[in-house]
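Q: I have 545 residues here and want to know how they pack in 3D. Can you give me a structure?
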Amino acid sequence: MAGAGAGPVDHIGETAFEVFGHRRLRPGQREAVQALLDGHDVLLIEPTGAGKSLAYQLPGVILAGPTVVVSPLLALQKDQMDSLTVHGRQTRAGRLSSAEGKRDREQTLQAMDRGELEFLFLAPEQLANDDVRSRVTALRPSLLAVDEAHCVSSWGHDFRPDYAQLGSLLDDLTPPGGDRPRLVAMTATAASPVRDDIVERLAMRKPRVIVGGTARENIRLSVQREVEECDQQKAVLDAVTELTGPGIVYLRTRRATEDCAAELTARGIRARAYHAGLPRKARDAAQEDFQAGDVEVMVATSAFGMGVDKADIRFVLHGQAPESPDAYYQEVGRAGRDQQPAVARLFYRPEDLALARFFTAPVPRPGDVEKVVAALAASPDTEPSRAELVEVTGLGPRTLGRILNLMLELEPDDGGESEVDRVIARAEAYRSLQRSRIERMRAYAETRGCRRQFLLRYFGESDPSRCGDCDTCRDGSAAEEEAQEAAAIPSPFRVEEAVEHEAFGAGRVMSLDGEEITVVFDGSGYRTLHLPTVLEQELLRSSAG
């Protein structure tokens, strides 16, 4: 069907059934595909397991020209490639990533050169390879799909510098005097600032932002507060022992995952540790065994989860609070994808977040930034490799990488500040953002209100109702909190309204909770302000005037 051109709405359903075997499309899927066929770029935000891949697979089959899919998830890439070839017809797909051997890689490159591929899957780090980039450009794709699009945004909880290449890739893919490929960016979770940043960084044209249901009603949220670390560890072990079904336990350190997995194994539970320090083969084997049901409980750091396609996970436990509600909601969203009841429980000690705050990304020393700026200025015509920069500057690879990533984030120079000052200012703003997210995570753990309501407000839903099923709803405290909010003074501000603060600058209202108003500011992240004080002292004003 490639080359058929953009068809009428019913053609979408016909193609979905004939090629992919889908009798019915979800509203978000159909809306996204139609918008792409109508010439819009699309940002699609749907929960994991909601079938986001159809948003590029369908238009990729209907439109003339190949589709390039950028995704960091190697296992998911393989699953998606397999799904393209098992339905109505054989679809020619290839992949370039670190998982391919030399022979497979060369076969894919040759197929690209011959114009034989309909779908090309790319790991984002491949875009740094000049040869790969030039050959992708030569494909002249009609559609570019960006999976895990929150990685594009420095506001996102999982920003990846490799994704910074995507903006310039789009420029390369646009022939002189020709049309730029259509673009669909997909993610499971993205608060309003992240959405705006994705649209801006990818220079999306006529963007359509489609937000599916972010509420996961089948997941029961709860927080169990502990005083001592030893009690916290025992509580996690006891909870796993009591719960049934496949599950995931998230812990902060590699050592903790191994100790916990060993203890669970001693209790007769088939558990396995998973973290980035394990060899790739060990990680792949652990994930495959978990997927197959040979492992009951995966005890993991945050390295585990992206691309896990297991529908029957019955619980996700966090032994410590993650560093943001964004990361937390994405991780708990791995439970209950079969829509059956599931449990998400956080074991919370305030000290855990105090430690996380201490270890937020450090601001580099001005002298170190000066060394990098000078080294780059000394080679204006050829960009030195990172190994060369390490040798010239005397900086460690991590420090150097952090400074280079910050430099990628800089806006075009207006001639005002020095590049060193701009890098330092960017680092300070990023640290403020990280710390503000930690405080929102603390607010979630300590709220007396409905926990699902808290998270949905964080992600920009204006007036979500109480879930009736989380721990605070069940013990009655959420109803009491709601009554207090109803009795509070009315707010002149609206959720999503653009505002200005004399000290913090421009921002956007994210939630209104009784006498508290939470605003995310461009330069300092999330701030929760006392609404009566804000009104009395006129600290906020609407940007609309």
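Q: Anything worth noting?
A: The chain is about 40% helix and 15% strand. The chain has four domains: 9-211, 219-354, 366-430, 488-545.
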